[in-house]
Structures are given as structure tokens and as C-alpha cells.
Amino acid sequence: MSNPYLAVLKINIKGATAYKVDFALYTLFNMLKSLILIFVFYAVYQFSNVSTLNGITFSSIMIYFFVIGSMDYITGSAIAMTLQADIKEGSITNSLIRPISYISIVFLSTIPIDLLLFIFTTIPILVLIYLIAGIHLSGFIIIAFAIGILIAYIISNLLSFIVGSLSIYFVDIQGMLEGTIWITEILGGGIVPIMLFPKIISSVLMLTPFPFIIFVPAGIFTGIINANIINILIVGIVWVIILALISKIVWKRVSKNMNVVGV
Amino acid sequence: MFGEIKKDIKMHIKSLKYAWMSFTVYRTQAVIWALVFLLSSITGLVTISVIYSVSNGINGWNYYQVLILAGLSNMMIGIVLYFGLTRIPLTLRNGIFDKMLVKPYNPISMLLLSEPKVVNIMSIISGFGIFAVSAYFLNLGLISILVMLLIFFIGVAALIIFMLTMYLLFYVLIKGGKWLNSLIYIGNTASTYPLNIFGTTMMVLFTIGLPIGLATYYPAGFVFGKIPEETILIVIAFEMISIVVYYKLSEWLLTKYTSGGG
Description:
The complex is a heterodimer. Chain A is an all-alpha fold. Chain A has helices at 4-16, 20-30, 32-48, 58-75, 79-89, 92-96, 102-133, 139-165, 167-170, 174-187, 199-205, 215-222, 229-256; strands at 52-53, 56-57. In chain A, helix 4 runs antiparallel to helix 7 (102-133), helix 4 (58-75) crosses helix 12 (215-222) and helix 8 (139-165) runs antiparallel to helix 12 (215-222). The longest helix of chain A is centred in the middle third of the chain and has 32 residues, at 102-133. Chain A is globular, with a radius of gyration of 20 Å. By secondary structure, chain B is mainly alpha-helical. Chain B has helices at residues 2-24, 27-38, 42-54, 63-82, 88-93, 96-101, 107-113, 120-137, 142-174, 178-190, 199-209, 217-223, 229-255. The longest helix of chain B is centred in the middle third of the chain and has 33 residues, at 142-174. The interface between A and B is large, with 44 and 46 residues.
């Protein structure tokens, strides 16, 4: 008898790679955004004639943008959209009667795609960055970065899950989702490293979950974050626990109120 | 020809009414959408403000001049998304376009005008807000603003027709085009800054390859005296020619369309 979890995983891998050229081009062009921001900061460093901005060198900022570009593929969770589609179209009713929990189906529908992206885009890009930039990565940094990426992935998915669960109440949550993505990008260091913000703002931001999705892993890899790494990762783990608890409470509440619209 | 345009406008107004009703049917969500899009300009604003607060900024461009670019860029993406361009790959792939083909309208008009995404009007408004405030601080005259907006709108039209052609081309070639969506967002990021910082090759690419510069950098650069009159005339001529050429190409590519099946 075949494993139902494995079957869902296989189906989703096939679905994700159905349009291979489209997938490859999408992956390639996604990196261009980093290149644009690198050009912008190159112009800024050149014109200001400085070697550092708030203690960050141009080479660090360049590596930083490439790293967040490579991570973009795994931190953009599709869970919220899956939940919304299932609830809005009513297909959640079919999923609820399957011999596998609905939550597992939702996560298994996104994990294979993310895993593919991680293996075929994130890792090769990171290896390229490491080889070209010639940065020194100690064993401690590699482990801390791996933990940072895992925290980023879990937080991003949990946030997406919480927003997606709200579609029980709001039916259409795309605006909220766009808002979350947009807030994460600004407050998480997706457009400028958080250290370039005024000190008080960056300190407050580090207490929120957003920097753990982008800034923390990229900062550890590039060396922008070079002190208190363990403490920072512990705060990230605390956020994972808090968001997991919130997700559990939210799902418990929404499950009770499930009212399939089927539009 | 005018009869066709009138018919298309009527169809668009009806589609707009329908889209507006669909959008407002989930009221809370509509308000959230509107707020998110209204505040969407903040991304450019934050980046530019941070850059100018920690450095001398970008050579030859002051803070408000770059904000003008950010405002135009936000308006540009708002207009492009309003016409539902990013939805085209799915529309072609999942059979929705087949239904469009049986309606008594031009297929290109159907693709661009029949499913407006009304929430993007908020991006246009917020972009215009940044543009207007910056224009005020720069003491720009009415004529300068009108000239800038005129070149901007022709540039946006050229960009829309170009992207439509690309979506059709890649549907015909690989039955895909989702990657072009990321190109639009990359273009939007790039157009927030002066194109000359990207070097000659990228500048040419963002003028001809992905003509985002036609809508933002050139109109702003011209009004700020960074681009000579002769260049801007060439740019306007290029925009006009692009619109005609890409429209004709789109018509030809439509003859190569085969159903995605749905």
C-alpha cells in the first residue's frame, strides 16, 4: 500500500516542474532584482566616496543582496493562497475527508516546491557567491546560517498559514497577504539592510519576527551580523514557538467556524 | 476605427463596473486591499529616504528628483497591473482566452480591457501623491508637469503593448510566461532610480529591451534638464513606433495561438 504523504509529495513535485522552461526563466530573472539594488548601492557608495555606510562595506552589501535574492525562492510561502483557494472554492471539503490531515496536505503542497527551489537555486547561488566573493565561512557561521535559513522558512510559512487561515472569516485574503509580503520586505531588510535604518528603528525591528525571514540569515552569511549570533538565533526560535502557538490557536478557532462558501 | 474604439471603451466601462462590484463584495478585504496598495509606494520612499539619510545619494539627482522617479514608477506599475497584464499567462493557459475569442470584440482589447484589476488604482493614486508632493518641493511648473506626464503616458502605453507581445510570444513558444511577471516587478524596481546608474548596456536594455525607462527616466530626466531635447524627440518617436510595431506583432502572434485547453 502506497504512502499517502509520499503520493501528495510526488504530485506536487510533478505540478511544480510541469512548465520547466517557465520555471527556469522565472528563477533566473528573480535574481535580477538583487542586481538592480546592487547597482543602486554601487552608485551611492561611489558618489558618497565612502568605504562604509553605517559600518557596512559595499562588498558586504553586494553579497547581502545576492544572498537575499537566493533566499527569496524559499521564503515566499504559497500556503496562504492554497488555504484561500481551498476555502473559497469549497475544495477543502474533499480534503477533509481524505485519510491524511488537511494541514499535512497544505504543507506537503508547498514543501516539495520549496525543496526543489532550495536545492536547484538557493544552494548553487550560495556556493557561487562563496566561490566568487571569496568570503571566509567558519563551521560555526555555516551552522548558524543553516539554522537561520530554517527559522526564516518556518516563520515565513507560519505567517502565511496564519494569514491563510483568516480566509475562513474574510474569504478573500489576498490583500492581507500582499500586505504581509510588503511589510516583511520593508521591515525584514529586503530592500535595505536593517542596519542602515536609524539605530532606534533597527533595534525595535530586531524584536519583531520580520528580520528573521530575510535580514538575520543573510546578515550571518555576509558577516554584517558578527556578534551575539546565538542570542539572535534564540530570539528567532522564540518567534517560531510563538507563531506556532498562534497558528495552532487560530486553526483551532477557524476549524470550529468552518463554513465553506464554494464560490 | 473610431467605432471600434468606442465599442472597446464601452466594454471596458462595463467590465470596470463588474470588477468594482466583485472587488467590493468582500468589504473588509476591499478596504485592506485598498490600504495595502495605497501604502505600496512606501517601499520606494523608504529606500530612497534611507539612502539619502546615510549618504550623499545618487550623483546628479537630489532627493525629490529621485522621488519623482519613484512616484512615476509606482504609477507605471499601477497602470500596467490595472490592465491585468500579469494575469495573461494564466488567461491563455487555462482556456479563459478561448471564451474571450468568441465574443464580438478585438481579442487584444479583450485581453487588456475586459478584466481590469481595480485595486491598482490605489497604486496609481499613491504614486501620484509622491509625484505631486515632490513636484511641489521642486517648484515644478504646470507645463513641466504636463510635459512629463504626456511622455510618461506614451511610455506606459509602449510598455503595455510590449509586455502583451512578450506574453503572447512566450505562450506561443513555451506555453508559459509567468517569468515575465517577475520581469515587470524588476522593471518597476529599476525604474525607481535614474537609469544612468546601471551603465550603458543596462540603460539600453531598460530603454529598448524592457522599455520601463520610456515611462520614468526619460520624462523626468528631460524636465530636470539631464536629457537633451533631441534625445527626448527620438524617445517619443521610438515610443510611437514601438506601439505600432508591437501591436502588429501581437496581432500576428494571435494568429499562432492554440488553445491551452483549460
